[in-house]
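Can't paste images in this forum, so I'm doing it all in text. The chain is below; anyone willing to post the predicted structure tokens underneath?
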Amino acid sequence: ERSHGGSVDAAGVGTNMGLLVLGRVIRALAEGSERVPYRDSSLTRLMQSSLGGKAKTQMLACVSPVQTESDVTLHTLKYALSARNVLLKPEA
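Text version of the structure:
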């Protein structure tokens, strides 16, 4: 059930799309893929130099200890694990 009366929030859809593409970018980088879909969303275009460039990048995964949120916590941890597998070459 949507908290905003059942209507689709365009900003929320855009945010979710950006996060979906971010997951694809992280997966492509972790697997060493030739094509990394940076241009598939505004979020990943903005983050391109941080994700695939020569910068030090950190990801913070916020999880909940509540059992009812265990599926979201597990998904977040899997997402963070895939991000951990991305190897960058930061410059000093």
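Helices lie at 10-31, 42-51, 70-84. The two ends are 48 Å apart (CA to CA).
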